[in-house]
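Priority: medium. Attachment 1 of 2:
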């Protein structure tokens, strides 16, 4: 599936242009042409080159990654698609490639130090593209890229898994017709972390108060909305819902909990609820937190009795 230098030499005519030079010419053409169709052809070719690890040093040397980012910022859907597909390809399968040979290991190291760093530096742009697009192929390649860099530990989860990104993932999980997108949106059977985004309303607080009898005015309309607080027990209930249905999942019983309320949790604000599995055993341990505007408002740890 991948090329070697000997294979490339056999395929290149005696008077032909070598791969490094050809990629350099493609990058130059992208910037010098004013024809969008020509740019689309260039980016399509570069995206294909990005799939083979032997081309990674040439792409990095020619500053092709800048072409991919410029494509993402364009108004042309084809350019955006080629740009995200290329970045996805250059990060694809690096772990298995590294095992196969010292050459691919060298390419992998090169890509990890340069391409991965480049992607981290443009994370906001990548997230913005994913959140705003309605193009299924762009969604598919974006999700694949996010999955790759998370699995490889090349990005901080908190930086990538923003409320807007998680909300968009949930939306595509419901509306996607493409089975590939559906599969990428489904969490593994035994995930190490689950995140959901909640946005509490006054109606949520009133229903919770009605059920529990906690009619403290700090949760009611008697308190200005900017000072109003979500019930702490409601936050803990959301965490319990994740523990009992997603991580570790059905049949789980909470044995012990320790938690803290660090800041007030406000209504009508995106709340990112994260549960992390620390020990996957019969007596499992999880830690969890709720964040608003990147600040932790509620955090804790629990010991659980699982079915496994």
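Attachment 2 of 2:
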């Amino acid at each position: 599936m991948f090329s070697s230098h000997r294979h490339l030499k056999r395929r290149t005519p005696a008077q032909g242009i070598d791969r490094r030079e050809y990629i350099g010419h493609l990058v130059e053409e992208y910037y010098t042409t004013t024809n969008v169709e020509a740019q689309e052809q260039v980016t399509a070719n570069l995206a294909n080159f990005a799939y083979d690890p032997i081309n990674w040093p040439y792409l990095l040397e020619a500053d092709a990654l800048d072409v991919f980012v410029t494509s993402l910022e364009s108004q042309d859907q084809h350019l955006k698609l080629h740009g995200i597909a290329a970045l996805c390809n250059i990060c694809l399968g690096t772990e298995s490639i590294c095992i196969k040979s010292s050459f691919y290991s060298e390419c992998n190291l090169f890509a990890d130090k340069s391409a991965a760093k480049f992607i981290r530096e443009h994370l906001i742009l990548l997230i913005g593209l994913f959140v705003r697009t309605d193009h299924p192929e762009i969604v598919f390649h974006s999700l694949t890229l996010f999955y790759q860099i998370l699995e490889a530990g090349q990005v901080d989860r908190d930086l990538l898994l923003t409320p807007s990104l998680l909300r968009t993932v949930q939306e595509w999980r419901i509306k996607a017709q493409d089975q590939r997108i559906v599969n990428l949106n489904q969490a593994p059977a035994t995930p190490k972390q689950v995140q959901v985004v909640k946005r509490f309303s006054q109606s949520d607080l009133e229903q919770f108060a009605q059920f529990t009898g906690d009619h403290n005015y700090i949760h009611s309309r008697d308190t200005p909305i900017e000072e109003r607080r979500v019930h702490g027990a409601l936050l803990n209930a959301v965490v319990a819902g994740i523990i009992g249905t997603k991580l570790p999942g059905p049949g789980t019983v909470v044995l012990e909990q320790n938690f803290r309320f660090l800041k007030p949790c406000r209504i009508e604000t995106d709340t990112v609820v994260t549960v992390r599995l620390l020990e996957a055993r019969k007596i499992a341990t999880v830690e969890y937190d709720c964040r608003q505007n990147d600040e932790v408002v509620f955090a804790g740890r629990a010991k659980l009795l699982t079915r496994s």
